[in-house]
Amino acid sequence: MSDGEAQPALGRRRERQRGHRSSGPSDAPLPRLVNRWAPLEILDAEQVERIVDAAYRVLEEGGLEIRSARAREVYARYGGMVDEATQIVRLGRDVVEAHLAHAPERFVLRARDPARDLHVGGNVVNFGPVAGAPHITDLEKGRRYGDIAAFRDIIKVVHRLGIVHWQGGVVVEPVDLPVPTRHLDMYLAHIECSDVVWAARGVGAPQASDAIAMSAIEHGMSVEELAERPTLLTVTNVNSPRRVDEEILDGIMIMAAHGQCVVITPFTLMGAMAPVTLAGSLVQQTAEALAIIALCQMVRRGAPCVMGGFTSNVDMRTGSPAFGTPEFVHATLATAQIGRRLRLPVRASAVNASPTVDAQATYETAFSLHACIMSHSHLINHAAGWLEGGLSASMEKIIVDAEMLRGWAEILKPVSFNDDDLGVEAIKAVAAGGHFFGSPHTLARYETAFYRPLLSDWSSFENWRDAGGRSATERALALWKKARDEWTPPPLDPAIREALHAYVARRAAEITGA
Amino acid sequence: MSDGEAQPALGRRRERQRGHRSSGPSDAPLPRLVNRWAPLEILDAEQVERIVDAAYRVLEEGGLEIRSARAREVYARYGGMVDEATQIVRLGRDVVEAHLAHAPERFVLRARDPARDLHVGGNVVNFGPVAGAPHITDLEKGRRYGDIAAFRDIIKVVHRLGIVHWQGGVVVEPVDLPVPTRHLDMYLAHIECSDVVWAARGVGAPQASDAIAMSAIEHGMSVEELAERPTLLTVTNVNSPRRVDEEILDGIMIMAAHGQCVVITPFTLMGAMAPVTLAGSLVQQTAEALAIIALCQMVRRGAPCVMGGFTSNVDMRTGSPAFGTPEFVHATLATAQIGRRLRLPVRASAVNASPTVDAQATYETAFSLHACIMSHSHLINHAAGWLEGGLSASMEKIIVDAEMLRGWAEILKPVSFNDDDLGVEAIKAVAAGGHFFGSPHTLARYETAFYRPLLSDWSSFENWRDAGGRSATERALALWKKARDEWTPPPLDPAIREALHAYVARRAAEITGA
Known about the structure:
Chains A, B: Keywords: Methyltransferase, Transferase. Chains A, B: InterPro entries: MttB-like_sf, MTTB_MeTrfase. The structure is a homodimer. In chain A, 46% of the residues lie in helices and 13% in strands. By secondary structure, the first copy, chain A, is of the alpha/beta class. In chain A, the strands form four sheets. The first copy, chain A, has a nine-stranded mixed β-sheet with strand order 1-7-17-16-15-14-12-11-10. In chain A, helix 6 (179-193) packs antiparallel against helix 20. The longest helix of chain A has 22 residues, at 278-299. The radius of gyration of chain A is 25 Å and the shape is globular. Chains A and B meet through helix 2, helix 10, helix 11, helix 12 and helix 13 of A and helix 2, helix 10, helix 11, helix 12 and helix 13 of B.
């Protein structure tokens, strides 16, 4: 074939496509993503230092209310100034810095599939799905309280799309299950529906212990072996401002004692649970996180920890949180800078506060995601399916997010080209005013030349209208159902599966007293 | 007032709001935006050099088809190798580089309001509105061919929202006006509805001459004075690959001769009008742009020029352009790098290829916009209202885009804080588990603390549903109508207005032979 033939290139192209690979989007799992760009920063070194100094002042002069006697005992043993009457624990800078020195700057959490190990730290970019929502919503069944079926659906869809590097903990709250044993079914779902690192619920001693036990079974190891080869994370909040509830501390201490990763995330909404200024919120967020990271190191030197942030502004008329705003972007960038200063890995969030899966949900998420990635945050939470400021997990939003995450993965790929790609001869070979559709240079490359979208529709308006005129959100319905229906369980040793079910049955009986 | 008072802070807040500034979004025009971050780059210096070398090879060995005898004559006079039979002009590297040396790396185009002068170059970020669409679409009237009423509406809305740094040329094609005189009414609309720099239509000698004449009247100067103090730009395409039509060349040469700014934008869709590889498209785009910039310098040494790019991939199944894709992002970043290497200002585009104003239109635009800004492109075209790959201008999309542009403007603002913003005493003053709503630190700041959105709705799902459950796009309808209806004409000397109308009447008569 040569350029300039009369035969339409389009026909020839269709012929070549028969018998070639599907023209659908890639569903290979995202590879380990690396961001080679310098981090985007908004503070200078002096500003970072002032924030850190101020955070230490808050810990030394104000302290945190630690509502667990066991935790207070640990603090006291390692040099904390504990007031049993108020439950306030104050920490000197020297004490905190001494313990912080043991927190690893980077570490690996092991997945059942070693290719899916979670690398935390450096310039690796990790996405995790929505977590913590009480509702599930989709265009078919509408908005309703979460249940275990929806929980499993989310994990399946996200696994099938291959868009996350770890599975969240409570991707949606399965309220159809009794509270005391709910976590057991959640963990079973994580292990059966996916094979990446998963997260334990961030509240409660049994929730932590059972996660560790089940992960040990999943990996065919003892709990002691697991401590040397961590597999789990948990995302825990602080009850900002400056309070940590007993159940949260119980969970944290068990995870740390067993060498598992704690992601400490203060919940510092500006003007509500933290000062209304960005600097003030960062000071408080840093203080709160450092106090807990220090505790983790006191419990077990070298326990892997991640410093989380969830600083954003609120709607000052109503107090509702706002996400994906300029303030949120700045807080995300600054938090990662503070993390680099303190040599701690950082967790951020790709979130929005829209009530529905529309343009607002999308631009807020896009702003958040851009900030998360460009800041060099190491764990980017809620990156698939988050809606309504966290009150709903949305199936359609998973698809919209998937397109954005895959787009970013492509953008982060290094660009390289050879002389042939420069195409000087190909350019000269096409006449002025001609076209490249039939050019050998094009035909040799076009099938793999471009990123193939999952969701985007590039039809003309007329074709789109005649095909039903559906918005991206409407098209997403069929796509998530397809992903769910095409999901196949990842490999799991039948003996391990049996052992897990036996464990769950035994524990459920113990917990319910049956 | 002190912390911890029983009286709800919410009530006190409402009282303070009475008599204070409106809680609506700021409608002050965007200030001159500066991007203080380092540009985001994807090529190394050697790759940039190889692209530039290859572009010079294309110009020397392949050349461009220049379909204007006058232009060929200019090229010949200044060392171009002209083949009159094929109309192909080849240019030696030395010739191009010699002329490129005169193109300014930065310059200012004067607006009627000096505060709105357009600074091109360096780290200044400029947004322009949609241009070139044959259709107008909105939720009220639906999709139809453009008309002068819609043309004026777009300019008014964009002016009222204050979101652009220059007005586009043909924001939508007003097909209700006769073609030969259409440009006169368009220019009148620009001058009457706004006071920022505006763009002449990029095709045709009369279109260029009339723009210059009318701008001279607008500024109360002679055409000669205007050449020393340029006020206009025009965005022109190349008929890629490697062809430039006579009417385009006519317009370019008149603009350049009169010292006005030409933005040369090859239209290099990968695999269609350019090689399917990114590197190849960039080679061709660079070659085409340089040939025209050289022409402009030959016509008038020092003529302000901008190197444009419109490289993106196509949907290989249909040939339709795709925008906001990873390829588009890479092309945008790389084009700006090439511009820095060649010491030329660069034009980029915040575009999408969605058929409707939905999540896809939004994430594609968000990806494009991020790339435009982070690349340090100097003119970011189509940043308000673009849809359908350029086939429609959308009124609702203007609002969605406005929110994103204002968001970026906030993000680009430098962050600074003082000791009081660090809030250590404020943090200590709020009890553990308390809240900051009523804190004096908060009350003193909250009214101006946060960016106030134009479009975003942070209501709870229930409140949003009960208020009508409208998507962002649906809410945008009322917002653009409000902006249009609240628009007031910027100041314009009545004598100048009269002179402009007289000019238009005279020229219309000349053109139509009436």
